[in-house]
Amino acid sequence: MSVWDDLDLLLDSPSSLSVTSNTRGTVKDKANFKVEEDVAAIRKAIEGIGTTEKTLTEVLAKRSNAQRQLIAQAYEKATGRALIADLEGDTHGDFEDLLVALVKPPAVYDCHEVIKAIKGAGTTESTLTELFASRSNRQIKAISDVYLAETGKLLTHDLKSEVSGDYGKALLILAEGKRDESSFVDAAKAKADAKALYEAGEKKWGTDEGRFIDILCHRSVPQLRQTLVEYKNISKKTLQESIEGEMSGNLEELLVAVVKCVKNVPAYLAERLFESMRGLGTTESTLTRILVSRSEIDLLDIRAEFKKLFGYSLYSKLESEVSGSYGDTLKHLCGQD
């Protein structure tokens, strides 16, 4: 029995770990979806002489995650083999990573990205920062549930041994997935928090990082939006500018990411995509993670923010930066503006 079978405890249906498709995604359920036809096409693509990569892209990038789960189940039933194992055996490199990412349920994929970031030599803080700053409580809870099912351990427990200092403190609060989710905005509290942040940073010699962590990692998003406005009134600087001036390293990056996500998650992720394709070389793991994980949530908004920030479309940037079957699949997910 695979660990994915153990996850049945968490699943009520094939798509219950997937994010509910919404109108801001680029990938939707395929109309007239016929799972048997898709399985036959994938088998032909994998089992024939030479793998037909185009077919794998056409099928997997143009189905919703819930439909991919049905394909994976039917494929295993028909062949006695796991679809992911066959994809890993017949494709390679970034293209393999991308197809495997598409076939995993979203929470499983996010969880595996966390595991990759904390295992092995050195911890990849930038991945942890992106994931925990941009995910909702519900998504973080789903990641933790998968982690427990797969490892038998608490995610926060294992994170504790991998991250330290003020960065570790802030990340662990976010990883608990307990940010206030009330939509009520307390104007007086926003003013008091803005004043406390100003006094903990700009106004004093040395910075009280704990105060920044407490407010930015616990308050609700609407409450923090009001706090950002009040902070600018007091300081004449934005809170992001103050954090960048007062802090450094991983803690600065995490708190700036939190502030950016409070303002606009798609804009933050558009910046991450831009950075992953900037300068020499492309960070394919970041491209894959963002395009796969947001394709049914807000990739349309990310595309719009990318164009607004950088003056050209995400699709055109992908055309110039990535190629082959990997590039074609990413472009399918992105769609043209």
Could you walk me through the main structural features you see in this protein, from its secondary elements to its overall organization?
- The chain has 337 residues and is mainly alpha-helical.
- It folds into 4 domains: 35-103, Annexin V, domain 1 (Orthogonal Bundle), CATH 1.10.220.10; 118-176, Annexin V, domain 1; 187-263, Annexin V, domain 1 (Orthogonal Bundle); 279-334, Annexin V, domain 1, CATH 1.10.220.10.
- Helices cover 69% and strands 0% of the residues.
- It contains 20 helices and no strands.
- The protein has helices spanning 3-6, 35-47, 53-60, 65-79, 83-90, 93-103, 106-118, 125-134, 137-151, 155-160, 165-175, 187-200, 209-218, 221-235, 239-246, 249-276, 284-294, 299-310, 314-321, 324-334.
- Helix 6 (93-103) packs parallel to helix 17, helix 7 (106-118) runs antiparallel to helix 8 and helix 11 (165-175) runs parallel beside helix 13.
- The longest helix has 28 residues, at 249-276.
- The termini are far apart.
- Residues 1-21 have low confidence and may be disordered.
